[in-house]
Specification:
The complex is a heterodimer of chains A (about 150) and B (about 55). With about 150 residues, chain A is mainly beta. Chain A has 1 helix and 10 strands, in the order H-E-E-E-E-E-E-E-E-E-E. Classes of the chains: A mainly beta (about 150), B mainly beta (about 55).
């Protein structure tokens, strides 16, 4: 099991090589729930890892869909368990990327909503419902890269 | 590629099987945070290009 650095150091504690070497040493794999509307997508997790350093969390996910999502459903990705952001809202915490296989790439910003949603330029709603309004299908890829303050 | 599944009935990801590229000695359940034991280690499949523009 990889160790994420969450504990503070105590007064007078001697910093050992073992302690220092574990800080940021390994990212942990996790199982993200990826949805299009109310439909949980089936597919392959190409990459889903996070790292934590006290209140700072980094997450990267790439998910290859093998099925269809709900038509024009908002596309969402879940956080690692227990690591939702402080003050969940629509502030930007990273990038949100959709490959509509054989059609187009769509790039947006990832919002600190729970779960994570994307907003693309000029969109009137979250990605999937608008900009683009689309139906996730076989071989589509949803990818995020985010960094935020954990609650 | 490996597969994992959370067996905790209280977990929102209970009994959902995830297929993950690569070999992972440790996978954290995204639903409840427990340690999941990977199984069925197998070669990664070839991915479709999926790119909108091909040469």
């Amino acid at each position: 099991m990889a160790t994420q650095y969450t504990a503070g150091l105590s007064a007078g504690q001697v910093l050992t090589a073992a302690t220092m070497n574990q800080i940021g040493a390994a990212w942990e794999s996790y199982t993200p729930t990826v949805k299009a509307g109310a439909t949980t997508l089936t597919g392959t997790v190409l990459y889903a890892k996070y790292a934590q350093l006290q209140k700072t969390v980094w997450v990267q996910v790439a998910f290859l869909s093998s099925g269809a999502g709900a038509a024009n459903g908002i596309i969402t990705v879940s956080y690692p368990s227990g690591l939702t952001p402080a003050n969940t809202d629509i502030r930007t915490i990273g990038t949100f990327h959709i490959l509509d296989s054989g059609v187009a790439f769509y790039i947006g910003s990832a919002s600190a909503t729970n779960p994570i949603q994307g907003l693309a330029y000029g969109g009137g709603n979250f990605m999937g419902a608008a900009t683009p309004a689309m139906t996730i299908a076989n071989n589509d890829v949803i990818s995020i890269a985010i960094c935020y303050e954990v609650a | 590629m490996i597969s994992v599944r959370c067996s905790d009935p209280k977990c929102p990801q209970h009994d959902v099987e995830f297929h993950m590229m690569g070999d992972h000695p440790y996978v954290c359940c995204g639903g409840c945070g427990v340690h999941l034991e990977p199984y069925d280690l197998r070669p990664d499949p070839e991915l479709p290009s999926g790119f909108p523009v091909t040469e």
